[in-house]
From TrEMBL:
Belongs to the UPF0065 (bug) family. It comes from Pigmentiphaga kullae. Keywords: Receptor, Signal. InterPro entries: BUG, Bug_dom1. Gene3D superfamilies: Bordetella uptake gene, domain 1, Periplasmic binding protein-like II. This is Tripartite-type tricarboxylate transporter receptor subunit TctC.
Length: 312
């Protein structure tokens, strides 16, 4: 039963800026979604939403920080599919994805692109596959740490082509992209929110997208499925959470503000320009996110355990 003061606090919520934690480095795909959502939530919520980046351990460091934050609605988590793969990858996870969080809702779904440094010696996806297979000993693939979306996609890609290469973990795919532009790392699977700009500016090579249909904002890129990896599909869903114990009136205010944000024309335009799909309002609810998290944990757990990949 919430005490009188917390009922009052819930009534006045939000009476000061809200922090949205992004468990990856600034400038990367998760950060781009968070900052766009934070900006679109400001008006409907009636308060500034400040994004705070805390990278490391594939996003589990920042996620753990929110799990331990006060349940008052002033600390939120913007995280993606890694929320559901971490329980299988991290045997000593510092939080329980179901018990330690209040789901607010699903926000956007983002496809990924297979990209390489600009001078990578392959001009098609087929040539890229052959080159990777033939030079696996000298190539390096970037990701944002075990449990990140780029890690998951890279893993699935390498097992699909039955090849292994050295992987280099970063605190996010923004720093990974910097290294790729500096030709310090060879290729990576990264979300269109981070890669679209570089692809359109012809700063990196792009070979395929991980959606089952071509992306309107990158029409020239074949899908992995049509380019040869039948059925290869990785979509990165993103959700918003509050810590367990956040009072329901506060969660309700966050759900309303989030749904208004997802319907904001500027937000929708920005997401569409970046190849991202905004979730329909019906999925921007605690029930939808809760159900999705659970079904994704069921889906990825056995696959990851079978592959015997552990972060700790
Ligand atoms: C990921 O690979 O999970 C994300 O791209 C990391 C990030 O947002 O930088």
């Amino acid at each position: 039963i919430a005490g009188p003061q917390s009922a009052g606090a819930a009534q006045d919520y939000p009476s000061r800026p809200v922090t949205m934690v992004v468990p990856f480095a600034a400038g990367g795909p998760t950060d781009i979604v968070a900052r766009s959502l934070a900006e679109a939530m400001r008006k409907p919520l009636g308060q500034t939403v400040v994004v705070e980046n805390l990278g490391g351990a594939g996003g589990t460091l920042g996620t753990g920080r929110v799990a331990r934050a006060a349940g008052d609605g002033y600390t939120l988590l913007l995280m993606h599919i890694g929320f559901s793969t971490a329980p299988a990858l991290y045997r000593k996870l510092q939080y329980d994805p179901i018990k330690d969080f209040e789901p607010v809702g699903l926000a956007v779904d983002v496809p990924m692109t297979m990209i390489a440094r600009h001078d990578f010696p392959a001009s098609s996806f087929g040539e890229f596959l052959s080159y990777v297979r033939a030079h696996k000993k000298t190539l390096s693939m970037a990701n944002a740490g075990i449990g990140s979306a780029s890690h998951l996609c890279g893993l699935l890609f390498l097992s699909a082509i039955d090849t292994d290469v050295q992987t280099i973990p970063y605190k996010g795919t923004a720093p990974a992209m910097n290294d790729m532009l500096g030709k310090q790392v060879d290729f990576m699977c990264d979300q269109t929110t981070n890669t679209s700009g570089q692809i359109k500016a012809d700063k990196v090579k792009a070979y395929a997208v991980t959606a089952m249909t071509r992306i309107a904002s990158l029409p020239q890129l074949p899908t992995m499925d049509e380019a040869g990896l039948k059925g290869f599909e990785v979509g990165i869903w993103h959700g918003l959470w509050a810590p367990k114990g956040t009072p329901k009136p506060v969660i309700d205010k966050l759900v309303n503000a989030m749904q208004a944000a997802l319907n904001d024309p500027a937000f929708k335009q920005r997401m569409s320009d970046l190849g991202a799909q905004v979730e329909p309002s019906g999925r921007a609810t605690p029930q939808a996110l809760d159900a999705h998290v659970k079904s994704e944990i069921q889906k990825w757990g056995p696959l990851i355990r079978k592959a015997g990949i552990y972060a700790d």
